[in-house]
Amino acid sequence: MNPHDPKDPGLIAQMGADPEVQATSRRLFNLTCRYRYSYNFSWMGRPVIQYPQDLVAMQEILWEVQPDLIVETGVAHGGSLVYYASLLELIGKPAKVLGIDIEIRPHNRAALEAHPMFRRIELLEGSSVSPEIVAQVRQRAAGAQRVLVVLDSNHSHDHVLKELQLYSPLVRAGSYVVVFDTVVEDMDPELVGERPWGKGDNAKTAVHEFLKSNSRFEIDHQIEDKLLLTVAPDGYLRCLQD
Q1: 78-104 core/surface letters (b: 16 or more CB in 10 A; e: else)
Q2: 200 and 80 in contact (C-beta within 8 Å)?
Q3: Domain encompassing residue 204
Q4: What angle do CA 139, 142, 144 make, to 5 degrees?
Q5: What string of H, E and C letters represents the secondary structure of the chain?
Q6: Which among 137, 131, 125 has a CA at the least distance from the CA of 69?
Q7: CA-to-CA distance for 207 and 188, rounded, in angstroms?
Q8: What is the pTM (predicted TM-score) of this model?
Q9: Angle at Cα 47 formed by Cα 71 and Cα 65, nearest 5°?
């Protein structure tokens, strides 16, 4: 164990394999979902719509990876874009965050453009799987040594699988593709609501399908094992080779 790192991988693995801990975690997640728990938080004034545990995990990943470019599909209020931009500001590299959404609402765009962290943010409006948007992303990623990809838009199986196929080639060894809302597969069905995704058709099923034919990535189970509460079980995908 690294003497400068107090975490114990062995204990983390044991916690992740503890059936009582895992059952309690799932129960707590489902209970808090009824109260729209993830909507309770903001970052530097923008709603972030994430669990704090996942935000901490992303901070650890950003520090480890030191990306030159973060590509995130799904913008909403833009809180996560601001979060990543502020971390890049602290890291001190001249890195950028590229946010993609099929519709960026005018009031959200205006708030983001007025934010002090917008100097590190670029917005693209359009479908994340359209040839035009993908071409623009590839163009912006062309000069980046380290790209980190975050998928958080349409959570249906087909859409996420297509995103994984299109954006994973941008990621090199040591970096990540993070797929959010894989937890839909594990949630009580009534909590998902009227969405075009649900049990058996969601981001987690897409991840498992993707990994069947792509050996460049593996699930970083240590992350979810230590978080316990996460919207991305099986969704932290570490790249193993260029």
Answers
A1: bbbbbbbbbbbeeeeeebbbbbbbbeb
A2: no
A3: 9-239
A4: 130
A5: CCCCCCCCHHHHHHHHHCHHHHHHHHHHHHHHHCCCHHHHCEECCEECCCCHHHHHHHHHHHHHHCCCEEEEECCCCCHHHHHHHHHHHHHCCCCEEEEEECCCCHHHHHHHHCCHHHHHEEEEECCCCCHHHHHHHHHHHCCCCCEEEEECCCCCHHHHHHHHHHHHHHCCCCCEEEECCHHHHHCCHHHHCCCCCECCECHHHHHHHHHHCCCCEEECHHHHHHHCCCCCCCCEEEECCC
A6: 137
A7: 20
A8: 0.96
A9: 30
Is the residue at 130 inside a domain? yes
Give the residue among 125, 173, 129 at the shortest CA–CA distance from 147.
173
Query: Which amino acid is residue 43, in one-letter code?
Result: W
- Alpha carbon 232 to chain centroid distance? 7
Place of tokens 């790249």: 239
Per the structure, the count of domains in the chain is 1
- CATH number of the domain encompassing residue 171: 3.40.50.150
Residue 1 lies in a domain: no
How does strand 69-73 pair with strand 147-151? Answer: parallel
Distance CA 161, CA 207 (A): 7
Q: Which two tokens stand for residue 70?
A: 């973060």
Percent of the chain residues topping a pLDDT of 90? 92
The 10s digit of each residue's pLDDT in 23-62 is 999 999 999 999 999 999 999 999 999 999 999 999 999 9
pLDDT tens profile 160-194 = 999 999 999 999 999 999 999 999 999 888 888 78
